[in-house]
Each structure stands twice: as structure tokens, then as C-alpha cells.
Please model this.
Amino acid sequence: MECSAMSPIFILGPTGCGKSAVAVELARLLGRAEIVSADAYQVYRALPVLTAAPSQAEMNGVPHHLIGTLDVRENNDAATHARRAQTCIDDIIARGSIPIVTGGSGLYVKFISHGISPAPPSDPSLRAELQALPAEEAVRRLQELDPEGAAATNLQNPRYVVRNLEIVLTGGKPLSYWRNNWQPQAAGPGFHLTREVAELDSRIAGRAEFMLANGAIDEVAALPDELSSTAAKTLGLSLIREYLAGARTLTELTAALALATRQYAKRQRTWLRREPWATPLACCQSAAADILSALKSARFLN
Model:
């Protein structure tokens, strides 16, 4: 089967929904396809369990890219990752295969699907200054400088507040200006896999237990003291370090990891609802076949 529009297929969804397995099954149905990860943390080779990176068995013979390729001391960001992903996508197309991009890291996906935002890059000195502000002061300044942008920001997340305030201050324009300067169309068709919240929460709880019983704690214990700023934000890493320091019991750690993951999945669902280019699709046994049928109906495939 050949791809008539030489562009990637995007398989998106919140953590724990099963998108990795769907992407592999779709690749096998297509016959000639390779998967490019849009996950911010699976790129680190020292954390395969904690980041739920697919194993060789789960890859099922399908080539995967940008998984386990970086040392935890190396920084990664959405723009850098997008450039690496585009190189992979170009190489895959040149080989006559179809690229499938999958992941749930919002900005990473957005930069791959709609191009790298023209927003100004980070200013380390300004970033440090803003991070030193009390959280309520940073929120107040963002609301004063860009009320509309503040209303669209998760004000409970200090990292988002600081970054958006940094963009407004260094760029001299509201956040809407930078958002609206993304290319209007996605680079290829997208599908947003969904599950009922109760079902997803149950899967997340099971995955937290599995991770902690199958090497995530040992992974964190073996890490060097100094990590890149990106690797240090890996979901669950700080919680496990607290456990290793004796500040949590294993039971408390399991509950905390499941809670943090549910909260992350909720933020992902919120982001995905604002991305109408990705078609919602129930994640079930036939999801890959349903995607293939939709692609054929849209004449994306010959």
C-alpha cells in the first residue's frame, strides 16, 4: 500500500490510553510504515519503564524513532525534538514508507504537526527572574500584560505561567499573536484516541503499580545526580526520589504516581479538545482498522 499524500499520520491521546499499541497495529496494517515518537521523555534511554517506552516486543518489528536515544544529561525541548522528528519523517518518506507520529506531549506534537512556533526562545536570565517570583505575582503580571492569554493559560501550572509571561515580555506581543502564526493546517491527518475517564483512570492505576514493580525505582536510583532540565521533569521521577529518601512509603508512592498521572492525562485531554484537526476515535480493539478505513475514505491512501 502506498501513501498518496506524502505526509505523516498522527496518532494522539492521553497517557495510558493505548496509542502506542494502536500505532504499531496501524503500521502493520499499512505494511510499510515507521513510527516517530512525539513524547518528551521516552527519548531518554535510562528511563524506559518510568516513561512507558515500548519494549522491543511491543514494537513488534515496526521501526521506531526518537525512543531511547538521549542521555539524561542532554536537554530536549519541543523545537529540537520537532527538528529531529522532521529529519526522521523525511528519511522515512524517502524510503517509500509512511511515517506515523504518536505521542501525547502537546507542544512537541504541535511543533511537528503545525511547524515550530515563531515565539521568541527562552531567555535564561529572565526565566530565572520570573521563576523567583511568588506564583500569584507571576499570574498577576501575566493577567495585566495579556488578559486573553492568561485566560487561556493553566494558571495552576507555574511552568506554563512563567513561560507564557516570558514570551509576552521578550516578544512584545500577546500570546495570541504567536499562536495564530502557526501554519493553519496540520502536516497530515490526525486521530485523537479516547477512553472513558473511569476506564483510563483504572488503566493508569494499573500502570503505576506495574512500573514500580518492574524497574522504575531502580531506574531512578541509578540516575546521575545532575540531570538535564527536561529529564528532571519526567513524570514520577521526583516522587520516586522522595521514596528513595524515605519520605514516602511504597503504598504512598503508588497512590501519588497514579494521581500525578491522572492529572497529567486530564491536562492532555484538555489540550486535545482544542485541537479539532485530530479526529476523536474510541480506543478499542478495532481502532487501527477504523483509522485505516478513515484514511481510505479520505483518499489519503491509494
Remarks:
- The mean pLDDT is 92.
- The beta strands are 9-12, 33-37, 64-65, 98-103, 190-194, 278-282.
- The longest strand covers residues 98-103.
- The longest helix spans residues 250-273.
